[in-house]
Amino acid sequence: MVNLTKQNRRPKKQSDDAGRRASKRLINKIANPADGKPLPGEAKEIEAATERYLDRCPRAMLEYDESGSVVAPYGDRIGHIFRLMDALGTPSMDFANLQLVVLERACGGAGDGKDDVAVNAALAMIQAIGPKDELEAALAVQMAAAHALSLKAAGWANRTENIVAATAGGNLSVKMMRTFTAQIEALARLRGKGQQTVRVEHVTVQPGAQAIVGDVHQHLPGGGGGSKESKDQAHEQTTDAPIAALRRPDQSNHGVPIACDEKRPMQAAWRAEHRGAEG
Q1: Which of 7, 60, 107, 262 allows an S-S link to 148, with CB 3.0 to 4.6 Å?
Q2: What is the DSSP string of 156-217?
Q3: Cα–Cα separations (whole angstroms), residue 178 to 150, 157, 266
Q4: Are the C-beta atoms of residues 187 and 129 closer than 8 Å to each other?
């Protein structure tokens, strides 16, 4: 069980873990290729990759001392514990301990053995997601576990010669990959990135017509004065309430006539002019 405070963990390995050995072999292979010198294009890529690597901050990792307690790769152990808690987006040490335990069980080796490389790889993915609180951290841990299981299942299917076992492993791998994709979408919705936005670049208004730019509110009959924004509507709302057509300006450019049958008195100047024309 991972515990950031108590000294109750298994002893640390005497030699470097498998991940560090693999990294050293990769670096040695790049620095000392078989022909003794990389190609010009490869040398440029190596230089650029080295600059990018040095610009990135190393991820927080789980390392243990001989008593089994979490230790830091540098002298500041308390600061390292804070980094692990920050990686999970929480100020709660209990929450951080529990999530690390779950991560070990989901991504570790078979039985009681623990795979530090797999756990630290999953922890690196969680830090790439960058959870801001415990809810996002829980989803990030699930995403890391689903990703690890999908790759494990794909490996089971690839190594076996039994068609039934290969089919089961392949189906589980595909299911976990789909789950991982759904979790990414859930995280985007949780962070408010799943909303659809429509941007109007150009509006053409014909003579005699009107256009409205902005949020349109439609007052539904019998709704007690409530309104519904058009941006939240999945389709056009229609009502049975009669809507009067908007008339265009007349030829004398007197504006829009009032659509009403009510008789109103004429202005005196217009009445006098009209009678003079009849006489």
Answers
A1: 107
A2: HHHH---HHHHHHHHHHHHHHHHHHHHHHHHHHHHTT--------------TT-----S--E
A3: 9, 17, 74
A4: yes
Q: How far is 7 from 242, CA to CA, in rounded Å?
A: 77
Token pair belonging to 140: 């990030």
pTM for this model (two decimals): 0.56
Q: What pLDDT is recorded for position 52?
A: 93
Cα–Cα distances in Å, from 121 out to 106, 118, 128, 140? Answer: 12, 5, 11, 13
Closest CA to 155 of 125, 139, 176, 140: 176
Picking from 49, 73, 50, 51, the residue whose alpha carbon sits closest to that of residue 60 is 73
Through-space distance between the first and last CA atoms of the chain, rounded to whole angstroms: 109
Question: Alpha-carbon distance 192 to 203, whole Å?
Answer: 28
Amino acid identity at 73: P
